[in-house]
Amino acid sequence: MDQKIKKEIVKYLKSQRLMTLATCADKPWVATVYFAVDNDLNLYFVSSPKSKHCQDIEKNPKVGVNIADSHTSNSAKKVGVQAQGITTQVKGWERTKVLLKMWHKAAPGMEEVVNVKNMKDKVISSRVYKVTPVYIKFFNQMLFGEDGYRVIEF
After folding, report:
1. Domain extent at residue 139
2. Which residues form a coiled coil (predicted)?
């Protein structure tokens, strides 16, 4: 994998907060979730296992994601990520604590509610989920020109 492109993707993803998550068990579904990214391009979101998208993931862990800045004007250079991945619920409280810290940094404001203590005490049902990418299409007309994008397959 081209490390320069990987670094640019991580940089872009860290500048964004919202991800559209597409799932499909019996019928297609989309959800908008706050996310965080690590340096290996794994995406993390927090959601209730009872939600429609997490119920779908239980049946079919293959997902599609889209990340783009919705404030971009039609005439601006396009930048965004489309990806396919495999989603799993993160296991273990220590790992969850580390990932929640990263998630709160990316999407601050819910630290008092979304935390390991509230998960353990069943105050909230939310859990951390990880999307491991298998395919990423990175659009970036500023880097790659007018029709520019790069594809990474894992």
Report:
1. 3-153
2. none
Count of domains for the chain? 1
* 99 C-beta neighbours (distance < 10 Å), count: 21
Residue 1 pLDDT > 80 = no
Residue labelled with tokens 């495999």: 86
Tokens 């971009």 -> residue: 72
Classify residue 83 as exposed, middle or buried by CB count within 10 Å of its CB (0-12, 13-18, 19+). buried
**pTM value?**
0.95
pLDDT (tens digit, 9 = 90+) per residue, 70-101?
888 888 888 999 999 999 999 999 999 999 99
- For residue 114, the one-letter residue type is V
- Look at the block and give the residue holding tokens 């079919």: 60
d(CA 8, CA 150): 11
Number of Cβ atoms within 10 Å of the Cβ of 25: 14
Q: What is the CATH number for 51?
A: 2.30.110.10
